[in-house]
Write a structure and sequence with these properties.
Layout lengths: L1 H23 L31 E5 L12 H11 L7 H5 L3 E11 L13 E8 L2 H17 L4 E6 L2 E6 L9 E5 L3 E5 L2 H12 L9 H7 L8 E6 H7 L11 E9 L2 E9 L27 E6 L8 H14 L3 H6 L1 H10 L3 H4 L7 E7 L8 E7 L2 H16 L3 E7 L2 E14 L8 E15 L2 E5 L2 H9 L9 H8 L8 E5 H11 L2 H8 L1 H5 L1 E9 L5 E10 L3
Antiparallel strand pairs: 1-2, 1-8, 2-3, 3-7, 4-5, 5-6, 6-7, 8-9, 9-10, 10-20, 11-12, 11-18, 12-13, 13-17, 14-15, 15-16, 16-17, 18-19, 19-20
Helix pairs in contact: 1-2
Length: 552
């Protein structure tokens, strides 16, 4: 409805953009010390206004002007000025003097009037910390006086000692409500009822997010000095999206963003009332299988014990998260298409025919090819009796699919190749007709190096492994910096070199191009991202994503 449209058009857009200053500005910090670019507090104070039934809350815990230390002050100033251009508000003159160290935006309610017949009308709440209450009151008066001059009909009421100002706009006009509460916050909403509820939440503490046991548990996981934090009530997020989850294992999620000398670390914790089943024992150092992954890899996944992955809570989280975010498995199936193609081509079931016998270390990698079409792949697994039996089973499957198992030798290294004979036709002159030749196509190879069994997609890849032993991914400075930012022990790493994998990902997930346009400054300077799961709490799953930026 128009209430939702209007608030998104002014306040929500402004709040999100100001929060984005933190993210978009991160890429400017290289070469600078982030020591003074930390949040003023470990968690937002505006949670006293937010209902414990709120699906989402996002907070920036630093004054946007402090982020100008990241550099390019002129461009950041232009962004802030443009946000308020249509309102006639001058950021530097009207907002900067009183704006404090917190900006919080929340979905206060899924439906303002709780009337299903007229559709869902979410209530949005924006809380701005103020360091000069009188000046912030002057700002609120100025904002609404300008709206009155533009034709809005204002309404003023006293509610439990707080002055609320709103405009009774016509349906085609914007609607806005605002108030200064106490000495600490300026509140804006897309309906006066949202502000009244926010004040009720303060005066009846058992209603607000601060009193929520889920939030209390989640907030304990926040690191000190984070620049931004987000809290999600996952079942209500699913309800907001109109989804019915097949299994609600995780109740809530909290995310924090913090700077480090090498990039940006986003940490997240998922909370559940159930016991967490870890897919494998935590690792105190990178697995040895990574020594056989070339530095040229665009994607590398490493860890231990794939046999229990499908039954782990990590797998259940993936299922719940994708259902909550996408509502279907379409995007997921696009990302997993290369694996689906392998299963179809070889007639195998990955969990049963491969993952089931991988109980030790493993590493999986994709290497971009010259044409940037189909990536080459590598699979390294620690040797064991089960692995030897698994390899024999794969050889049998290859043979049953018409492939031959042929021995090869490269640089004195014995290799087994799955090959297929094909015919090729070559046209000659009309008298002689066509000529035929037989070609051997390699469909996969495997060999043994040290204590590891190695599988590859082609001869070029296995030759790269054999001839570049001192140029593995663990010697790559970018990879070393990235995993150094991830706490240990952990469950291993998913490492993505953005510059090498960007084209492949864009083909698999077309919507990614739109995301890149929206976050162009960030993506233009993104070098890699590394994902890991860590933490040992019985009812929480903790992990992080480290974004390494160019020149950082």
């Amino acid at each position: 409805m128009n209430r939702q449209r209007s608030f998104i058009g002014f306040i929500v857009a402004g709040a999100i953009a100001l929060l984005v200053i933190a993210i978009a500005g991160f890429y400017w910090f290289f070469g600078k010390s982030p020591a003074n670019l930390i949040g003023s507090t470990s968690q937002p104070g505006a949670t006293i206004f937010v209902s414990k039934l709120s699906p989402v809350m996002v907070s920036l815990l630093a004054n946007p002007d402090r982020l100008q230390a990241l550099g390019r002050e002129e461009e950041l100033s232009k962004l802030k000025t443009s946000l308020f251009a249509k309102s006639g508000i001058d950021y530097k003159q009207d907002i900067q003097p009183w704006l404090g160290d917190e900006i919080t935006l929340a979905i206060a309610t899924l439906d303002i009037d709780r009337d299903l017949e007229n559709g869902q009308q979410p209530g949005y709440l924006l809380a701005l910390a103020t360091k000069q209450p009188e000046k912030s009151r002057e700002f609120v008066e100025l904002l609404f006086s300008k709206r009155a001059l533009a034709g809005a009909n204002l309404a003023v009421e006293q509610y439990k000692g707080v002055k609320l100002i709103s405009d009774n706009s016509q349906p085609e006009q914007d609607l806005l409500a605002g108030a200064v509460v106490g000495e600490g916050f300026v509140l804006f909403a897309n309906d006066p009822k949202v502000l009244r509820d926010a004040i009720n939440n303060v005066q009846a503490p058992d209603l607000n997010l601060t009193s929520s046991p889920e939030y209390q548990k989640a907030s304990k996981e926040l690191p000190k000095g984070g620049l931004a934090v987000a809290f999600l009530n996952l079942p209500i997020v699913a309800k907001w999206q109109g989804l019915e989850l097949p299994e609600e294992l995780y109740n809530s999620q909290i995310i924090s963003l913090a700077l480090s000398p090498k990039g940006l670390l986003a940490e997240t914790t998922f909370l559940t009332s159930s016991e967490i089943v870890s897919p494998s024992a935590p690792l105190s150092k990178p697995v040895g299988a990574l020594q056989y992954i070339p530095a040229s890899a665009g994607l590398a996944i490493s860890g231990s014990n794939l046999s229990n992955l499908g039954n782990s809570d990590l797998a259940k989280l993936w299922k719940q998260a994708t259902a909550t975010i996408y509502g279907s498995e379409d995007v997921v199936s696009r990302l997993a298409k290369p694996l689906a193609d392998i299963q179809k081509r070889w007639g195998i079931n990955l969990p049963e025919d491969i993952f089931s016998w991988v109980q030790g270390e493993y590493a999986i990698a994709l290497l971009p090819d010259k044409e940037q079409t189909t990536p080459r792949w590598i699979f390294v697994v620690e040797k064991s009796e089960d692995v030897e039996q698994g390899v024999a089973r794969l050889d049998a499957i290859a043979s049953s699919n018409g492939l031959s198992i042929n021995p090869l030798t490269i640089d004195k290294q014995k290799i087994s190749a799955w090959t297929e004979l094909t015919t090729a036709t070559k046209k000659t002159d009309a008298k002689e007709g066509a000529s035929f030749s037989i070609e051997t196509k390699v469909r996969g190879l495997h060999t043994t190096l040290g204590n590891y069994k190695i599988f590859t997609s082609d001869l070029e890849t296995i030759n790269e492994i054999l001839t570049a032993k001192d140029n593995s991914i663990i010697d790559n400075p970018n990879f070393k910096d990235s995993i150094a930012a991830i706490p240990r022990p952990n469950q291993g790493y998913i490492y993505l070199d953005w510059t090498k994998s960007q084209n492949l990902l864009e083909r698999q997930v077309p919507i990614l191009k739109l995301v890149e346009v929206l976050g162009k400054p960030f993506f233009n300077n993104l070098r890699s991202l590394t994902v890991s799961s860590y933490g040992t709490e019985a009812r929480s799953l903790k992990g992080g994503v480290f974004f390494k930026l160019h020149h950082s």
